[in-house]
Amino acid sequence: MNGGAQGRGLRAYALLYLLFLYAPILLLPVFAFNSGTVVAFPLNSFTTEWFGQLWGNATLRRALFNSLTIAFSAAALATLLGMFAARASTRYRFAGKGTALGLIMLPLVLPEIIVGVSLLVVLLAVGIELSILTVIIGHTLICTPYAVAILTTAFASLDQSLEEAAQDLGESRWNAFRLVILPLVMPGILSSMLMSFTISLDEFIIAFFLAGSEPTLPTYIFSQLRFPKSIPMIMALGTVLVATSILLLALAEYFRRRGAARTGQTNSGGFL
Amino acid sequence: MASRSTEAGQGLRMIAPPLLYAVLMLAIPLLTILTFSFINDGYQTVIWEFTLENYAEVWADPIFRALMLRSLGVAVLVTLATVVLAFPVAYFLSFVVPPRRKAMWIFLITIPFWTSYLIRVFLWKVILGYNGVINSGLKSLGLIEQPLSFLLYNTGSIVVTLAHAYAPFAILPIYVALERIDRSLLEAGRDLGESRLMTFWRVTLPLAMPGVLAAVLIVFIPTMGDYVTPTLIGGGKIPMVANLIQKQMLAVDNKPLGSAIAVTAMVIVTLLAGLFLLLNRRFLRVRT
């Protein structure tokens, strides 16, 4: 099928495309370690000053703490909700299942600004004060569809007879789930947690609407991008963030592969 | 409960927690802005009286119409660029890359997508800016004397930035659709005397259409509502619909009018998506 010339042409194109994808990110460390205060060429000398600025920045520390709190809570909640939805979707048949799952997955096809705006209007109308809690509510909503997608794959690859065997051998339904199903889907759970965590950590527009006066990492970055003086520090921050997300993604991929191996699937794709 | 032991009852109880959450935090808020869009704005409050004034005001406003058209134009261009550029990559992944290397390629493609969206968008400003990578590169090569100022702060730069941001969204669904194609169909096409190009046009492309469709919708919808890119790359000079919604909701604090804009934008997006799906179904039927 793949004639040599055609394959080579496509490979060259794919490599160019990768370059396009990576071009902006490759610039990050270049400016993060450049001593010039203006982010432009030509470069000055090497410095780690901007990383030092990160360390001493109290607002940034608060934003980071808030973002980690939000991301961890949203990831845990979304994964928990995702497990219910994935199990319902793979194990049971009932009227209205499609509609219910459709509503749960809806945030995937809604512009995030609509999610943010509508939640804002309701929260203010009910009289709930904006805080990191309200951001957790919003982030859980947008992370849940991803959790459902990952966990559905994990639950769907289970052999139902394993659970039935455990129940036939006298385990209660809960014990059968805890002792047989849970260990088998654990890689999926971890993968879903990491994915949700990463999404929440990077989400801007919902946090922008719902965080009130509390900074999160993205809203802090957004506020700093207006000041040319802060840009080199933001480049350093970006370098740290990129390194961290690559690490998290590598972990997620590791768990996914281990999960695939454990349930005896062939390994043919990424986060699909 | 009679349904306690039935499969349907168990299923409903199982899906109840995420469903309840989606109803409370998504369905009710969406219905609320729909309601808000039909009532009057009072000072720091709303007046509970049915009105169509918000919609009349939105549609009479030339700024809204201009921003809506710009958002649509940008979203269409971004979608077109993203999907057309992504298709060959997805094709390469599915047909050229050997199976054991596929996971690695997909991993490579998804990594940039998971790194800070804000910073990635801002970096395009660094690339396209007055003293940016392109301008200083061209200058040092002696190709230009003065920096090109038309690179930044225009619709084109917004399109490039967004096309970059949504690239993996387009590649992955097309790749999945291509992977599902039964390879013997392609051989059959070739054996029956079709050229490689005609096999692609009459077999591969129609079978890949569900993936292309998903890619189009996944890119088009969030691009329409993007706030960050017009703000950072457009420098505030090229606002899109999201900027208008944000302004009405927060700065002007006219929630009914803001809701009317949000609902209008949502309805337009939904209608267009529906129309696109319909046209596509017809296109596929003609071809098969």
**Topology, number of strands of chain A:** 0
Note the gap between the termini of chain B.
51 Å
Count of spatially separate domains of chain A: 1
* Structure classification of chain B: mainly alpha
Tell me roughly what share of residues is in helical segments of chain B: over 70%
Structural class from helices and strands of chain A?
A: mainly alpha
Distance between the termini of chain A: 25 Å
The stretches of 5 or more residues of chain B where confidence is low (pLDDT under 50) are: none
- So what's the overall shape of chain A? globular
Q: CATH class of chain B, please? A: Mainly Alpha
Q: Compute the gyration radius of chain A: what is it? A: 23 Å
Looking at CATH, the homologous superfamily of chain A is MetI-like
Binned, the helix content of chain A reads over 70%
Structure described in brief:
Chain A is mostly helical and 272 residues long. Chain A has helices at 4-32, 49-55, 58-91, 97-105, 112-126, 132-156, 160-168, 173-202, 205-210, 217-224, 231-262. The radius of gyration of chain A is 23 Å and the shape is globular.
Describe the protein.
The complex is a heterodimer of chains A (272) and B (288). By secondary structure, chain A is mostly helical. Chain A has helices at 4-32, 49-55, 58-91, 97-105, 112-126, 132-156, 160-168, 173-202, 205-210, 217-224, 231-262. Chain A has a single domain (59-262), classed as MetI-like fold (Orthogonal Bundle), CATH 1.10.3720.10. Chain A contains 11 helices and no strands. In chain A, helix 6 (132-156) packs across helix 8 and helix 8 packs antiparallel against helix 11 (231-262). With 288 residues, chain B is mainly α. Chain B has one domain (53-179, 209-287): MetI-like fold. Chain B has 13 helices and 2 strands; from the N terminus they run H-E-E-H-H-H-H-H-H-H-H-H-H-H-H. In chain B, strand 1 (40-42) and strand 2 form a beta hairpin. In chain B, helix 3 crosses helix 10. The longest helix of chain B has 34 residues, at 62-95. Chains A and B meet through helix 1, helix 3, helix 4, helix 5 and helix 6 of A and helix 1, helix 3, helix 4, helix 5 and helix 6 of B. Chain A: Keywords: Cell membrane, Membrane, Transmembrane, Transmembrane helix, Transport. Chain A: It is found in: Cell membrane. Chain A: This is Spermidine/putrescine transport system permease protein. Chain A: It is a multi-pass membrane protein.
